Amino acid sequence: MTFLADLHVHSHFSRATAKDLDLEHLHMAAQRKGITVVGTGDATHPAWFEAIHDKLVPAEAGLFRLRDDLARSCDREVPRACRAPVRFILVSEISNIYKKDGRTRKNHNLVYLPSMEATARFNRELDKIGNIQSDGRPILGLDARDLLEIVLETDDDAFLVPAHIWTPWFSLLGSKSGFDSLEACFDDLTGHVFAVETGLSSDPPMNRQVSALDRLTLISNSDAHSPVKLGREANIFHTALDYTAMRRALESNDPALFGGTLEFYPEEGKYHLDGHRKCGLRFSPAETRAMGGICPGCGKPLTVGVLNRVETLADRRIEEIPDGFPPFESLIPLHDILSEVMQVGPGTKKVARAYQSLLEDHGSELEILRHAALEGLEATGPPMIGEALDRMRAGRVRLAAGYDGEFGKIKIFSEAERRELVGQRHLFAAAPQKRKKSKRLADPIKKQSPDDPHPEKEKDTMPTSGENANPGQRQAITHGSGPLMIVAGPGTGKTTTLTRRIARLVDERKVPADQILAITFTDKAAREMQQRLAQLLGDGQRPLTATFHALCWQLRQELSDDHTESIIGEEDKLFIIAGIMRRMVAEGIKASLKPRKVAARIETAKQKLQGPDQFFESVAMESLDSQFARVYRQYQAFLQKEKRVDFDDLIFDVVVRLETDDLFRQVLRNRFRHVLIDEYQDLNHAQYRLVKAIVPPDGNICVIGDPDQAIYGFRGSDTAYFNHFVEDFPDAEVIHLDRNYRSTETILEASWQIIRNRGRSAGPGMMGARLVSGKQGAPRLEVLEQSSEKAEAVAVGKIIEAQIGGTGFLAIDAGKVDSAAAAPDRSFADFAVLFRTARQAEVLAAVFTQAGIPFQLASRRKWLDQTGIAQLLALYRLLHDAGSAHDLATAASALQPALEKSLVNAFLDWKEGRKLSLSQALTMHTQLPGGVLTFAQQQRLNGFLEALNALKGRLEACENTACRLAAVDRYSAVRELPRLALAYEDHLERLLKLAQECRADDARFMARLVLQRDADCLRDGVEKVSLLTMHAAKGLEFPVVFITGCENGLIPFARQEGEPEDLEEERRLFYVAMTRAREALYLVWSRRRMLCGQKREQALSPFVAEIEARLLAHQSYENGGRRRGRQVQLKLF
């Protein structure tokens, strides 16, 4: 059969779409237009997919129809002459914004799926990657090639079609952010793309000038944002009415199966020619080339249109196109034709009545445009309708081509022709309404451009080898034996210097790699160092690279024959302490301390290497110190009984062993003859003692750091250990690195003005100097004043959208984004938003989610403590006999039958009363005396533990950690939990990736999870904006950085109305935040902010006031053009 299909539409969940763009109105519009198969659009959006699932029922294979009751109701609203079956095909458009080959790429892709089940699978995969809930067309920082791979893995019959491939801003071959070929975009998967959508601004002959497209079927769709726009372009099929037949037709490119397309006149599209809409200038490709691509009105780059881009990639003329391709027809929407013949606007009631009358008399719109007899139309329609259609079918129309987001204008009659056809008397009698005078397009002007309109981006000159290092780096890399201290400010190449030094030790000095130890402060930094060393050293042996805690965990494992010991996390610690204090109260012993305060004090004590025996416990137990001593002692006894250690025990126990066991100390010193330590200024007392124990005074130790970046005093860090290095290692050589390879001079000067006011935090000769990069950039930092924290988040979002050139057509077309001013190579991953407190992230995340801006939050808690993930990991640890009491409480709802809180507490109290470990208590669960649990509770506990053992049996068939973790997810009740985290799939995917890195080492996997810090949770290579605290940003860098909350009380941070606890550390923290920026830095603050449950008036941070005015550009909400007279609600995009 022959039928028409419009395979690209949207729903009302997409931005800037009609409110009535629902399945019912699509069903009715399809009949009025004469479309048989309509794309559902937006099938990735959860709410729209739910509507699809509810309102559509299966029809022919892979196609769906409106539910009978809904269809009957809708059909009554459609003219009888138009009524016909309507089918839906599952489809969604994905916006891909990412970097590839050094450029930001923005393209849209249509994904077609053969079933509801396949769509659900596809949506789950995308949900792991980004936010699919904020927009019907989700914005993902995902390479189009990787999207295609997901499509192919989802279902064998699913396929991808690049959308509107020539559109300048968001397309495969677009002039602004596209590629020059399919192969450049899809790489090895190019062969799986068999069709492309041409878009409104091009037609098949234009596309066929590019011979590389010969094998592809060219399709055309409406991309409708309202029901009335449906069918303005469409496709003709000569196949059976089912998904498989349609897919086969598209694969074939055979006119016998795919009958061609119904097209806009390409000139009517809004990107056909080149131009600059703000200046009202439109140019042909030849004129654009003559002017060097620069707008003569404003001096900014012109928007290069589709015709120009086609000519750039074309390798033949239109007359050279071979025969045999599917045909096409150019049409004008019936509303527009009626508008012209009736001399009124296309949206008027007069046109609507004439349109409805024609449909009632002659059938659907496309039937009227293509086939209806002209005589019949003249008889029943408005005057000249037959003549208008005749001219359209013959291509006798007048066109003023569209450009830079401005739709083209199409005319069928000139005024002279109109007078001739209807007569002068009728023309004046009609007295058409006077229309607004359109802005006259200026004549082309010769090129008037700056000397260098497209300056090449300054290349990073960071040295990659010792040979081209700067003098300070070369001195550090080639240093011989003995202690070495490198004082290195931000962006001076610390990691490069360390890794080059290690490589030289191995390659040139022939030091065995296993005799080298490199210590970092985060797992992320350790992995980066490992990757760089792999590039430098090839496939040979690698030095041990680890954090302090990971090193000590490995040493503990090597020292112990019993590998059942495991590490507890912060939540486990709090649970244990709370349980101890609860039992103290039950025994009549005073326990007035808060568990979090006790936990913090225990942490501080262990960092100072103070055990429980160093705190006095009185019999009376009246003082807080005495309470703490008792809890600390019981806490350590509990850990020992359960064979558990906490984070701080790792270093504590190893230091004690090193300082009391001469043989162990000597073995370790012989094993690691070269020790290199990054971020040495962040050492606490326990870490300092560990270093002193591992390295003798004349040993080969190389430390690198910067006292101006010491920001972890709250963890016990002390710059005194950095300052004492030359005393601890008297033969040490000290080298300063002051060449910055990261930031512009403006950023360096402003940050220097902050840190130069520091106190004497560093010892003699340790103070950093003003760094120099020689990189030029913006002469000022932007200081943005906003009215509220929500307005602050919106302002940041708008700047991000502007700098990547918009996230969608509408922002550009509406003039909300200056396309000419957009940074050409910006993508989401280039932006970081920093804040002082974790709470500030909530508003930012909410606004970005609503706006569809992809982001990742550097937060361990937001990953591992989310509902579903916390239960999964607790269950995993219980299954490996590494679980804690807190794990039992957390996992109580992850198996059936679930255990209530009172049951768990009663069981744990019985366990503690019997002084049993958890594993012992679980094996003795049937021996609980009467009165501990009710009969029903005992039955539930028995059932839960039977389910736990059954699940443990399933894990025996798994060969590695990832397989075991996936099995726990599959066979537990985790996914049935209420309030399961929306990003559960994404979080699980990250866990599985980490598990794969650990191969079959479950203990290593569990240890790595506990040792994760916030900064470690930030994923590399992900096209998302990074949201992170100023502390978590340490060691990272981004082209564009926003520091939000630049207000007194936040920066510097002060609790409630008090003074900052450590003003100098707050100063250093702000310095660290500023120096994360490479090219642009925004300091953002809000006049009012919700703090401690109250709305408070805020003032600009005093640190910002220390920066000279010449380096700052202040923009306020009042004088920045955003408010006139009264406050209005800011809207993103």
Mean pLDDT: 90
Oligomer: single chain
Rounded to an integer in angstroms, the radius of gyration calculated over CA atoms is 35 Å
SSE-based structural type: alpha/beta
The overall strand count is: 34
- Unreliable runs, pLDDT <50, ≥5 residues? 424-462, 1118-1130
Structure write-up:
By secondary structure, the chain is an alpha/beta fold. It has 44 helices and 34 strands. Strands 1, 2, 5, 6, 7, 8, 11, 12 and 15 form a nine-stranded mixed sheet that branches. Strands 28-29-27-30-31-26-34 form a seven-stranded parallel sheet. The model is unreliable at 424-462 and 1118-1130 (pLDDT under 50).
Can you give keywords for this protein?
single chain, 1133 residues, alpha/beta, nine-stranded mixed beta sheet, 34 strands, 14% strand
Short synopsis of the structure:
The chain is an alpha/beta fold and 1133 residues long. The chain is built from 44 helices and 34 strands.
SSE layout:
Layout: E1 2-6, H1 23-33, E2 37-39, H2 46-55, E3 56-58, E4 64-66, H3 68-75, E5 87-100, E6 103-113, H4 116-129, E7 139-140, H5 144-154, E8 159-162, H6 182-186, E9 195-197, H7 204-207, E10 217-219, E11 234-238, H8 243-252, E12 258-263, E13 274-276, E14 281-283, H9 285-290, H10 306-313, E15 328-330, H11 334-342, H12 349-362, H13 365-370, H14 374-380, H15 385-394, E16 398-400, E17 409-411, H16 415-422, H17 424-430, H18 471-477, E18 484-488, H19 494-507, E19 516-520, H20 523-537, E20 544-547, H21 548-559, E21 566-567, H22 570-586, H23 595-607, H24 624-642, E22 644-645, H25 647-660, H26 662-671, E23 674-677, H27 685-694, E24 700-705, H28 720-723, H29 725-728, E25 733-737, H30 745-755, E26 781-786, H31 789-803, H32 809-813, E27 831-835, H33 840-851, E28 855-857, H34 861-864, H35 869-879, H36 885-891, H37 901-913, H38 918-923, H39 935-955, H40 961-971, H41 984-997, H42 1002-1011, E29 1025-1029, E30 1038-1043, H43 1063-1074, E31 1077-1086, E32 1088-1091, E33 1094-1097, H44 1102-1105, E34 1112-1115
Parallel strand pairs: 1-2, 2-5, 5-7, 9-10, 12-15, 18-24, 18-25, 19-20, 19-23, 21-22, 23-24, 26-31, 26-34, 27-29, 27-30, 28-29, 30-31
Antiparallel strand pairs: 1-11, 3-4, 5-6, 6-8, 11-12, 13-14, 16-17, 32-33
Helix pairs in contact: 1-3, 4-41, 11-12, 14-15, 16-17, 18-19, 19-20, 21-25, 22-23, 22-24, 25-27, 30-43, 31-33, 35-36, 35-40, 40-41
